[in-house]
Amino acid sequence: MKLKVRNPGLEDRIPSHSDLERMEKEEAAGDRPKWDNKAQYLLTCVGFCVGLGNVWRFPYLCQSHGGGAFMIPFLILLVLEGIPLLHLEFAIGQRLRKGSVGVWRSINPYLTGVGVASLCVSGLVGLYYNTIMAWIMWYLFNSFQNPLPWSQCPLNANGTGLVEECARSSTVDYFWYRETLNTSTAIDESGGLQWWMVLSLIAAWSLLYVCCIRGIETSGKAVYVTSTLPYLVLTIFLIRGLTLKGSTDGIKYLFTPDGVEGTGLAFIVFTEAIINMPVSPLWAVLFFIMLFCLGLSTMFGNIEGLVVPLQDLNILPRTWPKEVVCGLTCLVSFALGLIFAQGSGTYWLALFDNFAGSIPLLVIGFCEMFAVVYIYGIDRFNKDIQFMIGHKPNLFWQITWRVISPLIMIVILVFYFVTQVTKSLTYLVWDQEAESFPTLASRPYPSWIYFIIFLLAGVPSLAIPLFALFKFFKNKCCKKEDNNDYTVDSISAQIKINGNARF
């Protein structure tokens, strides 16, 4: 396919291959932070791509959408959409040597909204993702006890029996919903801030800040642990699980569509399995250290996905020290994340998870692929990859980038939008007054929640056309288009000023 959208001034906005070679030599002679070796870079990529969602979100989606049968369309889409899009993002970022805003603005100023949308999604996802890290730290702290605090019900106030809520449910349910979350019975009942969750959230953001201010000097070495330990621990759990009585029943259960709610898988199902193991505190510590490593390595990339675009948009000045930039970003994120430390926090987190990382990601992914193939130009992109790795992408990449992947994203986006519009939106609550207790009760969302959903899913998606319209009317009013900020010389200058590792 030779279709290509007219894109004047592109040559002036991107570095040539000779410019790239020159900048590479300048950086090699300078003091810009670098990866010690290829292994650090690969482990960082693995850590960012494989995170908490693989442990608590993916199994939930698998269980609630057909069990083992879910793996068939998942693997197909992984090959035909997920991997091609990942490869495309890595390649175009490396070619243009900029962050998520700078890359698309360099391809065409009208595409600045793609980077802004990515910034919004990174911020929203990071808010609730680090809240899960806070939950993990809380459980890890409580794992250094024998017996584990979620292995038995507490006594009631007068000491004559067990707490009724725990006796009617289970020890792991009670510890999760009451001792950890102190959850309210509705999303519009805040329940106030839970001080232990606030402290855990402070610890999570503080640790992330300490790791990020050192840049790849620290994170590059940390990934040796954070990106490899989870696989070691999971292998240990797999071997241990297969040796237990009833392991075959567990494997059958894995492939049947009857599962628990997202976060409940990690904090209820796994914790119940742990208390049935010998030396349960040891297994608890290992499990939550594993989750912690998965989450931390992902947040390394997530915080960079916030800081770099904010600087590209001049919201945070490039002249500010990295300690200030990262500190301000973490502080604002912590303040916004306090909504998840309320009694209704788990309901808010589920809302963010369902909408902030769904429709916007599909829209962004489609726009990225269309921009590279039909605006930047697939022939130019092929030559760039040949320049970087020595050979052009094969036929598989050509077909997926040009046709298959964009079509798949359009179909999924339309199908998802139609199903969401036609169904009544509900959420699950922990309410001991409900008839179904201890099963979570289904409740309709209050009417005002649809405005929140629009902010989570609609605003990032609409940022793309809105920024394009803004640029169009600005050009019409000013009668000229200012591309001075996107020239080759400015790229080299920005690299020297910023001094940070990019894509």
From TrEMBL:
Keyword Isomerase included in the entry's annotation: no
Annotated residues for binding of Na(+): 47, 50, 54, 294
Pfam families: SNF (PF00209)
Composition bias, Basic and acidic residues: 9-31
Domain of life: Eukaryota
Assigned GO CC terms: brush border membrane
GO biological-process terms attached to the record: sodium ion transmembrane transport
Region (Disordered): 1-31
InterPro entries: Na/ntran_symport, SNS_sf
MF terms in GO: metal ion binding; neutral L-amino acid transmembrane transporter activity; symporter activity
Membrane topology: Multi-pass membrane protein
Cellular compartments annotated: Membrane
Residue intervals passing through the bilayer: 41-58, 70-92, 113-141, 193-210, 222-242, 282-303, 324-343, 355-378, 399-418, 448-470
Annotated keywords: Membrane, Metal-binding, Sodium, Symport, Transmembrane, Transmembrane helix, Transport
PROSITE patterns: NA_NEUROTRAN_SYMP_1, NA_NEUROTRAN_SYMP_2, NA_NEUROTRAN_SYMP_3
Family: Belongs to the sodium:neurotransmitter symporter (SNF) (TC 2.A.22) family.
Protein name: Transporter
Native organism: Gouania willdenowi (Blunt-snouted clingfish)
